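Researcher: Let's try something more involved. This one mixes different molecule types, so please make sure each is placed in the same coordinate frame as the others.
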Amino acid sequence: MRLSDMLTEYIMDMLEAEDNAEIRRNELAERFGCVPSQINYVLTSRFTPEQGYIVESRRGGGGYIRITRIRADKSTALMHIINSIGNELDNITAQIMINNLKSASIINDEAARLLLSAGAERTLGAVPPLLRDKVRASLFKNMLITMI
Amino acid sequence: MRLSDMLTEYIMDMLEAEDNAEIRRNELAERFGCVPSQINYVLTSRFTPEQGYIVESRRGGGGYIRITRIRADKSTALMHIINSIGNELDNITAQIMINNLKSASIINDEAARLLLSAGAERTLGAVPPLLRDKVRASLFKNMLITMI
DNA sequence: CTGACTTTGACTTTTACTGACCAAAGGTGT
DNA sequence: ACACCTTTGGTCAGTAAAAGTCAAAGTCAG
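Model: All components are placed in one shared frame. Result:
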């Protein structure tokens, strides 16, 4: 098996667990008994943005290379969530939903905060209690759909 | 973890509480077991004006280094807007506000879309018409405040 | 055989850290 | 006042520890 393929597999495996893998170039090169620049070759040939990955790195002491898998199915995931929201949505469920979306890196931190504050009980204080879950459902569906 | 990062974190933590952190170079260096000039390195590499910080210092007995975080216009602009929102906010005004914030690049496109859709008439359809402007005002104030 | 893909290694650039030496502010004795 | 010492912080150049680049050499399917 090709060296590049083994390295690719290794990184893919790391990304299996989390969609964020951090490696140290020299260390990895040593483990695979290859030259460090081989790692760069693998990264530029198999982990490109077109293939759904973001590679960030830092040189110098304590440097690193971080590979992030982009969720291409952002829209799919969002549509799924949107469809799962019925006519009403209570705040606890909403909070869980947002946190899930955030930790799956489907939405970013700012969007999460905006959604959470929109759905907060305090924000909807002026809405008659019996209507709140209805309004919250509408808010979330309409806000999430803008992010597709 | 890098020494520089630990020092950065330490200073950031101080700035969390207040916009203003005062340190003594030698003392801090000793606490982290490094040479004093390491502190300067961290300050010049991570607390530059471009990154939104001002560093002032004074030598001699009772000397100090003071790091001040400059709150970018963003917060000021947002606070200004937030304060200008009264108890009620109609949709037209809200739309103008958001577009202004966006064209001044104080908020990004996604945030603008989220705010607009939260305030839309259709989104707030379940809210009794007489309450809508109240709810919209609350929504905007609470959402904008998360972006400060 | 040829062209695309792999592998290698020499050289470059960036970042982190250290230490020797410098500069300024305050304190003190005359 | 002044000279001198102490207590701070500042600078800079050197070393080390990463990662990046690029072109030459190797491999392999068609």
